Amino acid sequence: MHAFDVLGDPVRRRILELLAGGERASGDVVEVIRREFGISQPAVSQHLKVLRDSGFSVVRAQGARRLYALDPEPLRQVDAWLDPFRRFWEPRLEALATKIARGKRRRRLAAEPEGDPS
Amino acid sequence: MHAFDVLGDPVRRRILELLAGGERASGDVVEVIRREFGISQPAVSQHLKVLRDSGFSVVRAQGARRLYALDPEPLRQVDAWLDPFRRFWEPRLEALATKIARGKRRRRLAAEPEGDPS
DNA sequence: CAAATGTATTAGTCAATGCTTATATAAATG
DNA sequence: CATTTATATAAGCATTGACTAATACATTTG
After folding, report:
1. Residue B22 DSSP code
2. How many CA atoms lie within 13 A of B7 on its CB side?
3. Are B55 and B104 found together in one domain?
4. Which has the closest alpha carbon to B98: B87, B114, B107?
5. Do residues A46 and A99 both lie within one domain?
6. Statement to judge: residues B33 and B81 lie in one domain
7. Is A58 part of a structural domain of the chain?
8. Is B116 within a domain?
9. Among A5, A30, B14, B50, whose Cα sits 20 to 30 Å from the Cα of B4?
């Protein structure tokens, strides 16, 4: 499943926002999502599976608990896909500052095998 | 259709990349997409409709031609949704430069009614 | 160990999406 | 004006995705 398909679902976007705040047990996520979206535990578990399988999150076991954490890599690729469009909304002067940041980042990662984000 | 759903389709992402290079007639887009994805003219036309309806592009007529251009707004919102996640891949010092840029931008747009991108 | 808790998986349903073929509409052209 | 060109829309079909209910599996607890 492509990163953008993963982000197409509002429940998954919300889960990612939660994980951005730090590691969370599956049950915690279920509770929040249940409250906000009114869907069942299996539904949330299935979304967590999608996030795992697509690389957006990693899990570790702690007893019976499953602790989910964000893996930022796919989001970084989404961010990278936006690069050629940024000139449409980032005014020139400010683009300079951002270019410095992004340019450095890109040099740092130049050696990595990078799947075409399209 | 939510911005992320629109971007979920590879054909639509490719069309947006084309439009990033400037205004294009429908027929031009059809030709490129046909070559790269092997789908029909109506299929492409339907994707162009999705892009129109979701605000990613605007059209003007020129005789029988329809000239499509990028409207960056939805992409900018996607970019904004990524903001809380950037700290995971933008190192501290560089984050400063970006923050300056994004901060300015946000102040400039503070008055606009901004739909929750989630 | 038996019951309870935390989480994942399976099977089945329903709605949404993307495609094709056929056709409609409008402008250009001979 | 008839034909061709440029594009959009409609109808039908297949696939996919998100849900629920039921159940499985593993860990904790009494």
Report:
1. S
2. 25
3. no
4. B87
5. no
6. no
7. yes
8. no
9. A30
Task: Please indicate, yes or no, whether residues A56 and A11 belong to a single structural domain of this protein.
Answer: yes
Give the closest-approach CA distance of B89 to chain A in angstroms.
Answer: 7
Distance (Å) from the alpha carbon of A39 to chain B's nearest alpha carbon: 17
pLDDT digits (tens, 9 = 90+) for B45-101: 999 999 999 999 999 999 999 999 999 999 999 999 999 999 999 886 655 666 566
Beta carbons of A75 and B85 less than 8 Å apart: yes
**Distances from the Cα of B108 to the Cαs of A90, A98, B74, B84, B117, in angstroms?**
12, 17, 17, 19, 18
Strand order in the sheet with B57-62: B24-25, B65-70, B57-62
Residues 89-118 of A with CB under 8 A from B: 89-91, 94-95, 97-98, 100-101, 104-105, 118
Domain that holds residue A9: 3-70
String of DSSP letters for B87-103: GGTS-HHHHHHHHHHHH
Residue-wise over A33-63: b if at least 16 C-beta within 10 A, else e? beeeeeeeeeebeebbebbeebbbbebeeee
How many independent structural domains does chain A possess?
Answer: 2
Q: Is B18 exposed, middle or buried (0-12, 13-18, 19+ CB in 10 A)?
A: middle
Q: Is residue A115 part of a domain?
A: no
d(CA B83, CA A102): 14
Mean pLDDT over each residue of chain A, to the nearest integer: 87
Does residue A77 form part of some domain?
Answer: yes
Residues in chain A where the model's pLDDT stays below 70: 92-118
Element (H, E) at A62: strand A57-62
Same domain, B66 and B79: no
